[in-house]
User: Fold this.
Amino acid sequence: MTDPIKNRKDEHIYISMEKDIESTTSTWLECVKLIHKALPEINLSDIDISTFFLGKKLHAPIMISAMTGGTALGKKINRNLALAAQENNIAMMVGSQRVALEHPETIDTFSVTRKNAPDIILIANIGAPQISRLRNLRKLDALVSMIEADALAIHLNPLQEAVQPEGETDYAGVLEKITELKEYLKIPIVVKETGAGISKEITRLLIKAGVDIIDVSGVGGTSWAAVEYYRAKSRGNNLRENIGKVFWNWGIPTAASIIEVRSEGRDQIRIVGSGGIRTGLDIAKAIVIGADLGGLAKPFLKPAVRGKEFVNELIRQIINEIKVSMFLTGSKTLDELRQADFIIFPPLKTWLESRNIKFPWWFY
Assistant:
């Protein structure tokens, strides 16, 4: 008999590769216009995009965002992603490890990452509904040791769970559990959304709970309401199918979410800008408005299925795009990029005004 969690993992992969699951609402990064410097006064070859994150030096401000695990296909994808991450010295977050807790025989589909990437920043991952009812925090030690993780991510996916036919919508007590985890674990805590963004109000609560890093995962890329819409449709579940259709574009666009989190978190939090990030220019813009790293998932999926060399090719392309973005703004380092001149246009500008967010916050 097929296990429903394992089956769901592969379903998510195939739907993500074969169906139209993109939000029809953009990231709003196109509302951020970097000012071109016709005389950059730097050499492209001298640009340094290295950065420190979680105590390690990365060659580029890139994170391979959470995708999969738990199946043979998931293992193949994770192995190829890890190999490429090691060769390029970028960060990686694994997919939800819940399946490995419930089915220990799947542990190797996650541990394959550390075996093939001994030196990278590697982040473990578990869902908020799972920790909300967790009585023994020691169970999470297994997730960390499984991949020798540098941090533990707790992913927030209330939208996906609300649409998913098997959805788990127990979110009461999650914040309290995060606070307990911060006291219990000896590694940093990451809280990440899964495509609907994080607001300044939630940022305030997460900082109070002791969270170290926020991965915004805003609207503009993969819609998990869309993914679950297709799953519900294939099962003839009209109720869930309709919910998925209605909430396809629900959430906070990525650019708005980055600014919301940074305006509230200031220097207290590190930020991963993700959700519809597709190019090095997207990452450059995300950094200018407050992110520390750019996270990508879907763009890496098909290359990871094909092989490590295809993942490497995409990483090299993104790195070159970041460098060109910096060259054209006269930014030799990422710190200089953060000071680059830019203009914000509606609807992002309108959003910030409506939310009473003064940005750039360092001017106020």
In short: The CA atoms of residues 75 and 109 lie 4 Å apart. The domain at 4-363 is CATH 3.20.20.70 (TIM Barrel).
